[in-house]
Description:
By secondary structure, this protein is of the alpha+beta class. 37% of the residues lie in helices and 24% in strands. Strands 1-2-5-6-9-12-13-14 form an eight-stranded antiparallel sheet. The longest helix has 30 residues. The N and C termini lie far apart (50 Å).
Amino acid sequence: xxxxxxxxxxxxxxxxxxxxxxxxxxxxxxxxxxxxxxxxxxxxxxxxxxxxxxxxxxxxxxxxxxxxxxxxxxxxxxxxxxxxxxxxxxxxxxxxxxxxxxxxxxxxxxxxxxxxxxxxxxxxxxxxxxxxxxxxxxxxxxxxxxxxxxxxxxxxxxxxxxxxxxxxxxxxxxxxxxxxxxxxxxxxxxxxxxxxxxxxxxxxxxxxxxxxxxxxxxxxxxxxxxxxxxxxxxxxxxxxxxxxxxxxxxxxxxxxxxxxxxxxxxxxxxxxxxxxxxxxxxxxxxxxxxxxxxxxxxxxxxxxxxxxxxxxxxxxxxxxxxxxxxxxxxxxxxxxxxxxx
Length: 341
């Protein structure tokens, strides 16, 4: 036996021990550092956060969420977006600029199905931050005159409107961005394992307390305006991504015996009447998932499939109603690998 083989023979057991020792240290570290659980209210909804850290970071987490609220909440009378809507001379902060640019990008990808200038229509139908109005075709036509992403731009760091009546509402992307903002905070703190959920918009990283991927349930789309339904359609095993769900089964109202969904088509000005009941999207970050989930509700199934084909980095799980009124499922190829067996 030559010297090289002899040397390898002696080194191999030590290499094996080194690998085993490294795995043991990682597992020991995972099991000894406790998981913190925080919950509370923000953005008119609730948050639940589980993360592995020696101490609670709740104060810093809430401070980060309040920064998002101060930038993007139309319900906050002093927020950046409220001042822009009131045509005040204000320079948007970095959070607003990021969300505005991302929203414009998603709008471009989806032929305007995602549009944060839809706020006057959302308000008129009673789903926004102002009281509903008596809907007439004439009212819808008048509001559509100043709805459209082409009517607003960022110029030299400031929002410029073609029409001062244009107002913005980032509600369909802000909760997702809020989850991302908390994720970035935890990343800065060196937290490796966490699940952040704000109003159903989720970011996951690393492993759960069971040292497995995080389990996220997709609810069955049952009419549930009181938000008490927890019947699960499927469970996904996920990590290192953002997840958002949009659906009209929780946010709707009846008027004159007719059901009105909260998702408004920016092109027509009316609530959508498509077959998709629930749109769950997985992306590299939650704000992106949030925006696409809303856009797919507007686009309907066939157009949503075309967008997904152009963006393989986006995964989606749709529950839709077929021609006979039966619930069916459409999913992108990547979803199947995430599903519980």
